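## Example record

The block below lists the input lines for one assembly entry, exactly as stored, with component labels intact.
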Amino acid sequence: MSRKVKHPTTTPGFDPVRRKFLSTMAAAAGVTLAPGVMLYGIARSTSAVARAPASAVSSDVRWGMLIDLNRCDNGCDDCVSACSKENGLQGHGRQSTDAQWIRKVDITNPETGASQSLPVMCQHCAEPPCVDVCPTGASFKRADGIVLVDKHTCIGCRYCMMACPYKARSFIHESLEDQKPHAPRGKGTVESCTLCVHRVDAGGQPACVEACSDTGGGAMLFGDLKDPNSEISQRVAKYATQQIRADLGLDPGVRYRNL
Amino acid sequence: MKRIIYSEIEGRSPQFYALAAILGVFILAALASAYYMEHNGHYVTGMNNQIVWGTPHIFAIFLIVAASGALNVASIGTVFSKTIYKPLGRFSALLAIAMLVGGLVVLVLDLGRPDRLIVAMTHYNFKSIFAWNIFLYVGFLVIVVAYLWVQMERRMNGYAKTAGMVAFLWRLILTTGTGSIFGFLVAREAYDSAIMAPLFIAMSFSFGLAAYILVLLATCRGSNREIGDRIVYKLGRLLGVFVSLVLYFTVVQHLANLYAAEHIGVEKFILLEGGVYTLLFWVGQVIIGGIIPLFLVFRPAKAGSQNSNRGIILASTLVIIGGFAQVYVIVIGGQAYPLNMFPGMEVSSSFNDGVIASYAPSLPEIGLGLGGVALTGLIVMIGIKLLRFLPESLADSEIDPHHAISVKSN
Amino acid sequence: MTLHRVSMGMLAVLLTCTAAAVYATENTTMENGVPKPLIAMGQGDSCVEDTDSMRRNHMEMLKHQRDETMYRGIRTKQYSLKECINCHVVNGPDAIPVTVSSPQHFCRSCHDYAAVNVDCFQCHASRPESGLPDISHGSDFAGAAK
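Predicted structure tokens for the full assembly:
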């Protein structure tokens, strides 16, 4: 049995109301999307962009950091405090076993006496030795370059800590309570700087970088190394930058200037 | 040559039960230590973010390396067809299994998350030499059990040579893998070297044979089974060869490092300025574990004399002591030396950069390690009581193919 | 004979009382003689899936989603563990949300009953963050510059 569909007009061929509706919708959509597209283009070139939560990370992006040591003060540790606050790192008064994700290292040239201070954290290498040696694959590199520990699979063997040339990793030596919900960490697993992946995924920047630009010397810059329009890419292309232990061929994502 | 008869030991004497009880106490202590470490977290141990592998790993690595070497005796009998070693094969395989299990138990119980053992056995990252090692260790257990079976089951004796060859090759790969756990680490100056693998092979020959000699002689004495002087003499001389091999690789390792200016720092540390590590290296590894055993084994003493047998027992004991010292220097000394991130500069930080890390073994760690040794002993004891691993007699007249000739010529 | 029967009967009564006392904790309630767990209602209208489906499948869901989040960076709100915890909050007597160390914690109220170990909270926070004192010490932390 056929059904008769009611139309406001009975013209064969096309329905003007429908056509008008569709064209209005198209115009509305265009008007809505166009500024977004434009803003997206602008945003991508300036800072980290919030990826849509349901989309996967891709290797079109490589997150990196550039630290200008001329602006890094010997006595300043804003980055360290910000990191411990952001990630809930609890000091237990046991210096040799307390976790440290970022630390200030003071280096002095024994011949000239010249000294410098620099923040050292997980260098998020392109060829991470910690990822190579992890027996269960818990230590892994995300497609966008951030090196993480999957605590669900980590068995706490500490081999990655042996393998890291930057001593970036810490082992959690005690039971923890009231961790930060955005930074899960637990006894018996290994951890290191996550490049504040929870912030980066939401379009922000790591806590240390933010603290440095807010209250510190403004030495740290975060951005997409693969985007030619990002500030970090432009600076890396323009100025000479170094990587710690570049001789190992690991291609860290953290670069230093005036080291 | 006479047919060898194997039999179980009776294992009902008060001494047997007393020894089993003592080993049981050590094992319980190890379980308690492991629970204490796992429940409270590793801050109760001496291990920290600078020295991540400590005393449990010393015991575990020694046991695992020696396990691989303990199988050597069986290989000499089966693969290289030396008749006088053939009766020793079953016990050699048993000791290899026991030591490997003991070492692995210590390793697993020290993990930060030992409850994730199933995860470790089902998620493999095959780029990791550690993952390969897990695979090789488990495979070793399976292969040695199969090797034992073809030796002990008369109808399968024809396959003994194949099984022996497979076991021999597998354990060479396994020990190469264990050495490469350290050799593949580019980050640490004390390790990053291809020589770690052959060094560990040599160590496995040496430690494994020393352990085998001691356990075999103790077992024969304890179960009143005769052991001939000829085989003890041959085992002793073989130990001397292996000890020389270890000394050779040690010399090559350090000479090559000393030649390169970039490694002078770590060499100075180990050989000269490292305090306890320097002491353990020279006195423990080289003198006690190397030179004195060589002298004891190779000095002119009539085979079968009291001096010769006592000398071999002493040499084996010293090799084991020296072996522990060597593993301690490699594992802990290698970690104590700071990472060289900024060559030529003086470094300091709040995370112990640039300073020699300090470490002191703690009671739970030692308890766990000793428990692994005790477990090895208990497995051997139970094994020889349940199954026929031990020949009834290892007297010269029973096993030495040249015995009749030498007796005749006297 | 009678003494034997009487003593057996007393033993049975004693055991039943003990069992009942043990089971009838603040966490369980007796329903037709069978102990059932007391599960607190979450906030909001409904869970992300219906109750039956959640009860059967939440473990698979958690396990699958954690890999999606870790390896592929997918952080949808619907399957976020943080949101689960934010919604399934149980307040203690002092009106502060309880942690997993209390048997009244949402996950524990059922997992204790089912005797299944919950491993998540070794690493994950078991209650929402807001309203809690900041326990990380900025200045006396080991990493502070001297």
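Chain C is about 40% helix and 5% strand. Chain C touches chain B at residues 119, 142-146 (CB under 8 Å).
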